[in-house]
């Protein structure tokens, strides 16, 4: 380990607690809890770190966006995207410590949101502090920190559009990223799209005694049968007409990169405690360029303890589709509604919740290649390029409106448990990721 690396990593481990208050704020966007307190904390922290400008934007509605900018020693500017909102901590009984009292357990830092994604912003704040004490920032930095990511980022595009001049940069480093199930670091260059929606059906004005199920329609059965009509149970393929039509095949270079991606099936099964076989024999390809139709939850009738024998009057399901680049969320919704009607379920009410487009930065982009080169120095030759993550996010406005290359590099690992009880980071990854970011920003300044 070089002297510089040892110094940066030691600094990160000694100073992470400088920002632990960030983890203590229960900024739960779904419950509108702690939003103002957390955004105020960020404004104060950016100012304490010497930002030349800090603003809290609320002109486009929704939860406020915190914007900050720092002056560096070169003309190159890097924009960071993060979000300060977190998922609800429930079920609380499964937590081994208070979710909003950051707790160190061996090599683990445990807290709600520490992986997704407060810990990653803490690394970035710590790096700013390090540079402040060691000669200054090598490049200009800007921060865009929003508070609605966990509820769909519905105002992000409006904020990006309205503040394009302030958000001008040369490249964007997104939240997320880290090490995969083989514990190899990944440089990710995009996201899949998503469309999230509710389906509701009502078959009566009131629940009916189950003895009348001989002739009374059952909303729960109708719902599950209608949803089942959208999928072939033998192949797993979605049977919605035109569902796959707009997926663009991967280039030969991307296909080669996909084949080199790690996928440790046994480790994945162990991590998630899977009880059934995988639903595909091509998991790498499906994660990068496939699409899904997923039932997130079902609700109908009586769900309490004991016995209540009824025929439910109504039933609701929450679903989402993960989309490949070039698939349009609104078009997918139209096709789903049409297919349900054609299958005889025109009484289903379908309500859109969230829609986000997929986005990829080209593999040969200079910024992507610089990040890969730096990562291979820091993390070794096992570093992987990944065209896009399995998940989504509001990346498109940054790529399309701001014309920025976007990469995802972070400090979580495959077992960090985002959204789950006992969410955590490994402190060793926190330290290593801090050095990677210091070196990447320095390398970008050299390339200027």
UniProtKB/TrEMBL annotation:
<keyword id="KW-0378">Hydrolase</keyword>
<dbReference type="GO" id="GO:0008233">
    <property type="term" value="F:peptidase activity"/>
</dbReference>
<dbReference type="InterPro" id="IPR051458">
    <property type="entry name" value="Cyt/Met_Dipeptidase"/>
</dbReference>
<dbReference type="GO" id="GO:0006508">
    <property type="term" value="P:proteolysis"/>
</dbReference>
<dbReference type="Pfam" id="PF01546">
    <property type="entry name" value="Peptidase_M20"/>
</dbReference>
<dbReference type="GO" id="GO:0046872">
    <property type="term" value="F:metal ion binding"/>
</dbReference>
<dbReference type="InterPro" id="IPR002933">
    <property type="entry name" value="Peptidase_M20"/>
</dbReference>
<dbReference type="Pfam" id="PF07687">
    <property type="entry name" value="M20_dimer"/>
</dbReference>
<dbReference type="GO" id="GO:0009014">
    <property type="term" value="F:succinyl-diaminopimelate desuccinylase activity"/>
</dbReference>
<dbReference type="GO" id="GO:0005829">
    <property type="term" value="C:cytosol"/>
</dbReference>
<keyword id="KW-0479">Metal-binding</keyword>
<dbReference type="GO" id="GO:0009089">
    <property type="term" value="P:lysine biosynthetic process via diaminopimelate"/>
</dbReference>
<protein>
    <submittedName>
        <fullName>Peptidase dimerization domain protein</fullName>
    </submittedName>
</protein>
<dbReference type="InterPro" id="IPR011650">
    <property type="entry name" value="Peptidase_M20_dimer"/>
</dbReference>
<keyword id="KW-0645">Protease</keyword>
<feature type="domain" description="Peptidase M20 dimerisation">
    <location>
        <begin position="191"/>
        <end position="344"/>
    </location>
</feature>
